[in-house]
Design brief:
Elements lengths: L3 H8 L1 H6 L11 H10 L2 E9 L11 H11 L11 E8 L2
Antiparallel strand pairs: 1-2
């Protein structure tokens, strides 16, 4: 939800319709997600932002965007606007 495009897409009805945002989709802020997972009985929670490749990226420039994305994923504040989250956790018994 920290990604500017997603913030606009989730909060402005016209943009939501234009991008085909489905009602069952949501966006997450990883700290809030981690709290929810803890409260649901999970431990060893790791949430890593990744992926700056937009679905509409032209094929020709994908290798270039991927290289930039790998670098952006390592910058503390910038990585928070990445497009995806990689999540691992263990369910407590």
């Amino acid at each position: 939800m920290l990604n500017p495009q997603i913030t606009l897409q989730k909060n402005i009805p016209y943009i939501k319709r234009k991008f085909g945002d489905s009602p069952d989709e949501t966006a997450f802020i990883r700290w809030f997600l981690k709290t929810k997972l803890i409260n649901s009985g999970f431990s060893s929670i790791y949430i890593t932002p990744f992926d700056f490749l937009h679905p509409h990226t032209p094929m020709k420039i994908i290798p270039f965007i991927e290289k930039i994305g790998y670098k952006l994923e390592r910058i503390p504040l910038i990585k928070e606007i990445a497009g995806s989250l990689f999540i691992t956790a263990k369910k407590l018994n």
